[in-house]
Specification:
This protein is of the alpha+beta class. 38% of the residues lie in helices and 23% in strands. It has four domains: 33-64 and 72-109, Alpha-Beta Plaits, CATH 3.30.70; 124-292, Nucleotidyltransferase, domain 5; 322-379 and 419-531, Palm domain of DNA polymerase (Alpha-Beta Complex); 541-705, B family DNA polymerase, thumb domain (Topoisomerase I, Chain A, domain 4, Orthogonal Bundle). It holds the Pfam family DNA_pol_B.
């Protein structure tokens, strides 16, 4: 099976991994295909001569396809294009032959490798024993004005020297290992290495299995759900798949086994799968299902939202149901959650863009919304059902295996599938989704709200108090002075009632729900607690939403907060927790904390010149620019705050500058904020914490410090 597809001058190269290297086949005749349609095929025929005369059109033919899941077969014009780079330009030109909207184009915006495998007999390798080699260089090396890398890490071994020497060593290691996959710290190392060869006229360089490299896409900034992201430039070397650690979601969140599992399900070869988003991979799965049903993939898809009354709109425009957490520390807590709730609703209730509010003879009604859902099997349940079933089988295999390597592979596969299942619901409401529909999104939420309330009522009737609930999970404690039905029997009854398994997730000795910092009530996603029995990996505590789980929190504050949680577990009172905090702050005051543990990581949302206020991020961006380290919106900056009173670049020092000092006051504030999350369930706020710390005597502090390990 094929693990890599390259488009080169000689044709399309499909690479297969073998035990002694790789074999390649060359396809000189491949021509990518797009389709043209109109409400009346006569409009297409009237323009066919212009299509045939286009210099990048090789051949046309009339074929029968469906333009959507709710449409019947109709005649369309198949258009074979000269080469992969001509697909989008040809589509743009053809779309202007008639008035906007009169002509519709299909199968246009596919990624290169995915398209080839979709249109040929190529099957992407999903279980091959692919060999890998890791290669990385410090950001300062990749940002240097002079071409070349003077320091690199190859499979964990550091290589230093002049650029030519480092290049020679890297190429020797690559040729000796002959890997199928290059795992790069940043793909920017590719043009840097080739720049050295060009400058020193070293001749053809083979980082891949053929000389040269290609730049597939430039870097870009995007916004998704209000969050700015950065997509680095993408590069290609023939015969090897590149996984860019700075531009991969699935490899970062799972592992190679997880990526390969999705390769088999999506039909996207490994290199494209590695940089793809969750939605991109889900769409690839949907495309396969669509084509199996003779449905083509729309370019620039647009679906209007059907009319709704104000009452229906008010009922529909809601998310999942939440039960405000009872702020405080609760003993003997049990967590239950519905297994793959949203995808299970989609499969069990047959929710799909073409089944919701469709014209059909038999249907079921969505609670409160009144939408009809056709009983004829939808395409989306057929896409998701195998994922749900396979993940359950993989989870069972994880529990049964004693082989750590197999467990790691299985966990990667389970995690990869989980991300697809988690996102499939939201993607139905995404405006750019190829096959989404907002009414499907609304119907899924309506069923989910009904299901959670059903579970709440059953648990309360069985003698349990629901202390928190959010979308698909509930936390309960025994209600005082009342008998309780066993949770297993209650969960089984709820599962049978709603048709989705309510599973026992975990038992806790205690759980603390954190109050909102602004306003009243509990924060929906901030809590922590101690497992009744440590997890298989030895984890004793669960943290959600608090500083220890936030990516911008420095390592020292994270360690302090985890220590405070353990102290709360031991004493169940705030005062010992704050005594422990005082010890940590005293060490901070003495300068005993390594600045490396104080590095703050923040994502920037704009270029440095676009900021209007002198923030810490701006100071870090200015320092980075002064050192030639350009940072783009969506990328991270890492720094230590050294003087927070200043508003210049001297306010911070970059982590790469190895600062020796830090601003004690700034990190005091961060530590107290983290401590507030720990003791606020007991009624303490920051002002009270500061008052207690001010009253702590040096004598009591010294006595406490001598009694145990401090951060």
């Amino acid at each position: 099976m094929t693990f890599k597809v390259d488009y080169l001058d000689e044709g399309v190269l499909a690479w297969e991994s073998e035990s002694d290297g790789a074999t390649v086949s060359v396809d000189e005749d491949y021509r990518p295909t797009i389709y043209l349609a109109a409400d009346e095929y006569s409009i297409v025929e009237a323009n066919r001569a212009a299509v045939d005369d286009h210099p990048n059109v090789v051949k046309t033919a009339r074929e029968s396809w469906r333009r959507g899941f709710r449409h019947d077969h109709e005649p369309m014009l198949r258009i074979d294009v000269a080469d992969i780079d001509a697909v989008t330009p040809v589509a743009r030109q053809l779309s202007t032959l008639e008035r906007a909207g009169d002509l519709r184009l299909f199968n246009v915006d596919f990624s290169r490798e995915f398209r080839y495998c979709l249109e040929t007999e190529c099957i992407p390798a999903d279980d091959a024993d692919l060999s890998t080699l890791s290669l990385a260089a410090p950001p300062t090396e990749l940002a240097a004005d002079d071409p070349g890398v003077r320091e690199a890490t190859v499979d964990g071994q550091t290589v230093t020297g002049d650029p030519v020497g480092v290049l020679d060593t890297v190429l020797d290691r690559v040729q000796h290992r002959d890997p199928d996959v290059l795992v790069l710290g940043s793909a920017d190392i590719v043009p840097q290495l080739f720049a050295v060869a060009d400058e020193h006229e070293l001749g053809p360089v083979r980082l891949g299995r053929r000389p040269g490299y290609q730049r597939l896409a430039g870097r870009s900034t995007y916004e998704s759900y209000g969050r700015v992201g950065h997509s680095p430039a993408r590069y290609n070397v023939p015969g090897r798949a590149i996984i860019d650690r700075s531009n991969t979601f699935f490899y970062h969140e799972t592992n190679l086994a997880g990526c390969l599992d999705l390769v088999g399900r999506s039909g996207k070869p490994l290199q494209e799968l590695a940089w793809a988003s969750i939605g991109n991979v889900l769409t690839a799965m949907q495309i396969h299902e669509a084509l199996d049903r003779d449905v083509l993939v729309p370019w620039r898809s647009w679906r209007h939202e059907r009319f709704k009354s104000m009452r229906t709109l008010d009922d529909a425009d809601r998310g999942g149901h939440t039960i405000t957490p009872a702020v405080g520390l609760h003993e003997t807590v049990h967590e239950l959650d519905f297994s793959s709730l949203y995808p299970s609703i989609i499969v069990g209730k047959n929710i799909s863009p073409e089944t919701i509010r469709g014209d059909c003879e038999e249907s079921e009604t969505v609670p409160r919304l009144g939408y009809d859902v056709c009983t004829d099997r939808g395409y989306l349940p057929d896409v998701l059902a195998p994922l749900i079933e396979d993940r359950e089988a993989i989870k069972t295999a994880i529990r049964e295996t004693d082989d750590p390597d197999r467990r790691q592979d299985l966990q990667g596969r389970s995690g990869a599938i989980k991300w697809i299942l988690v996102s499939c619901f939201g993607y139905q409401g995404f405006s750019n989704a190829k096959f989404g529909r907002i009414e499907a999104h609304e119907a899924i939420n309506a069923y989910a709200r009904d299901i959670l309330l059903t579970a709440k009522e059953a648990l309360e009737a069985a003698g349990w108090r629901v202390v928190h609930g959010i979308v698909d999970s509930v936390w309960v404690t025994p209600r005082a002075d009342e008998p309780q039905d066993p949770l297993e029997s209650v969960a089984a009854a709820v599962s049978e009632d709603v048709g989705i398994d309510l599973e026992y997730e975990a038992a806790y000795d205690w759980v603390a729900f954190v109050p909102r910092r602004e306003g009243s009530g509990g924060a929906l996603t901030k809590y922590f607690g101690r497992y009744a029995t440590p997890q298989p990996d030895g984890t004793a505590y669960k943290y959600r939403g608090i500083e220890a789980r936030q990516r911008s929190t420095c390592e020292w504050v994270t360690t302090v907060q985890r220590t405070l949680v353990a102290t709360l577990d031991e004493h169940r009172r705030a005062e010992p927790v704050l005594d422990r905090l005082a010890v940590a702050l005293a060490r901070l005051d003495r300068g005993d904390v390594d600045p490396d543990r104080l590095v703050v990581t923040n994502r920037v949302s704009r270029r440095v010149e676009e900021y209007t206020q002198a923030t810490r991020n701006v100071a870090a961006l200015e320092r980075a620019a002064a050192r030639g380290l350009e940072r783009f919106p969506g990328q991270d900056v890492e720094y230590v705050v050294v003087d927070d009173e200043k508003d210049s670049r001297e306010r911070v020092a970059l982590a790469s500058e190895n600062p020796a000092t830090y601003d004690t006051s700034f990190y005091w504030d961060r530590a107290i904020r983290a401590a507030e999350s720990v003791v606020s369930p007991l009624g303490w706020d920051r002002e009270r914490i500061r008052e207690y710390l001010a009253a702590t005597t040096a004598t009591s502090l010294s006595a406490f410090e001598s009694g145990g390990v401090s951060p």
